[in-house]
Design goal:
Layout lengths: L2 H5 L10 H8 L8 E2 L6 H4 L8 E2 L5 H16 L6 H16 L13 H16 L8 H9 L2 H10 L39 H16 L5 H20 L4 H5 L2 H8 L1
């Protein structure tokens, strides 16, 4: 992603309403229930497929806005908008609402695997069979729930960037990088640490080192974060992880 594309999604004041923040990012032509007709050059914006426009009718306002935002983010990221996949996600969420399934309040908080399982139920209801694990539609939905969902989570997050469990400069322009950072296309997930206090400590520690210039992003993602996650997994194997942190002899055993 180029610097000018990142700048166009730069953070707005913290007091702004999260949904209003998304709406402010979108051009007026992307505000409706049907997106595409009337947008100049739309033929070159969307992926070739069955659907010519985004159809988001019937969705709760927040989810409609989030799908439109993720589609627009992918456009700014330099990729074709996956029109068919966005419509499929909208269709299964509309179906879920009408059949008594609990909808996520926000796609930023939705678990990817939960949505893929819901897709399987929806697909079975329409076709009488489950989709193949490696089917094209399932892979494309998984991609939509990848970088665009991470970018949505970062955009809606009002706290510090390092509080998120997954960090990726492509999706979050708040992450401090060097002007010519060779590792800007690489992300990491310090939130994989399962002990809450260890997870918080790892994220805070890495953020301080990065923001102070002590570590570069390349070093953080290639070495330091992985080492700390290995340490966290070792702590998880102990009866009393908190006691081991201050035990120097335990630290020497770990190094061996």
């Amino acid at each position: 992603m180029t610097g000018d594309r990142i700048a166009r999604l730069s953070p707005v004041p913290a007091e702004a309403d999260p949904a209003g923040r998304l709406l402010a990012d979108l051009p007026p032509a992307w505000h409706g229930d049907v997106i595409g007709p009337g947008i100049e050059g739309w033929e070159s914006v969307g992926e070739a497929g069955r659907d010519r426009a985004l159809h988001l009718e019937g969705l709760p306002g927040r989810l409609r806005l989030e799908i439109a935002w993720m589609a627009h983010w992918q456009h700014l990221d330099g990729l074709k908008v996956p029109v068919d996949t966005c419509n499929q996600l909208a269709s299964l969420l509309t179906w879920a609402a009408g059949t008594g399934h609990v909808l996520p309040e926000s796609l930023a908080l939705a678990d990817k695997q939960d949505l893929l399982r819901l897709h399987g139920v929806w697909f079975h209801g329409r076709h009488g069979r489950l989709p193949a694990e490696d089917s094209g539609s399932r892979r494309r939905l998984g991609r939509l729930l990848g970088y665009p969902q991470l970018a949505l989570a970062a955009r809606l997050h009002d706290g510090a960037w390092w509080e998120l469990d997954t960090w990726h400069p492509r999706c979050d322009p708040r992450i401090p990088l060097r002007p010519r950072e060779p590792g800007r296309s690489v992300g990491c997930s310090p939130g994989e640490a399962r002990i809450p206090w260890a997870r918080d400590a790892i994220k805070w520690h890495l953020s301080v080192l990065l923001e102070s210039g002590t570590l570069t992003w390349s070093t953080l993602t290639c070495q330091r974060s992985q080492a700390l996650l290995r340490f966290a997994r070792w702590l998880e194997s102990l009866p009393d992880p908190a006691a081991a942190v201050g035990d120097l002899s335990a630290g020497r055993r770990l190094r061996r």
